[in-house]
Design goal:
The chain is of the alpha+beta class. The chain contains five helices and six strands. The strands form two sheets. The chain has a three-stranded antiparallel sheet with strand order 1-2-3, with no helix packed on it. Strands 5-4-6 form a three-stranded mixed sheet. α1 packs across α4 and α2 packs antiparallel against α3. It is elongated, with a radius of gyration of 21 Å. The termini are far apart. It binds zinc ion (ZN). Zinc ion (ZN) binds next to loops.
């Protein structure tokens, strides 16, 4: 990391702070001793969701979260557990590639919810099943078996 003042190549990190979007480092130049901050963004490739009618839209984690939260409403399940599940879902989707079918997301999500809470599962399933292609949906389920 080059010093913005004297362009010297070496610096030491005096402070490091992580945030969801990246890592912030306070650095001190080993030559001129001036301090500067660097910000390292965590690279997340865009992930697209292909809907049943063929339209593509950017994967929206908040949308997934709100759907899942609704299913778990008033259920005695800790929020951390649900968050962890959503993290796992997102990870799995990103492993699939740059594009996933919306029905695939539904399939994965349902399987995960089923393992945690049956009531939430039925709630999520009843909303979801109505408007999804059954074949794609099963594909999503099978992928985790
Ligand atoms: Zn310097």
């Amino acid at each position: 990391m080059k010093c913005p003042y004297c362009s010297y190549e070496e610096s030491k990190v005096t402070n490091k702070r992580e945030s969801p979007g990246g890592i912030r480092r306070r650095r001190e130049c080993l030559k001129c001793r001036k301090r500067f901050t660097t910000y390292e963004k965590i690279e997340k490739k865009d992930l697209y969701v292909v809907k049943k009618d063929g339209r593509r839209e950017k994967f929206d984690r908040e949308k997934l979260e709100s759907g899942v939260d609704r299913a778990f409403e008033k259920r005695p399940i800790p929020k951390e557990k649900i968050d962890k599940m959503i993290n796992e879902i997102e990870e799995q989707l990103r492993k699939k590639g740059r594009e996933v079918k919306s029905s695939f997301i539904g399939g994965i999500t349902m399987r995960k919810i089923k393992k945690i809470d049956h009531v939430a599962f039925i709630r999520f399933a009843s909303v979801y099943r109505d408007f999804q292609d059954i074949k794609d949906f099963k594909e999503g389920l099978n992928d985790l078996q």
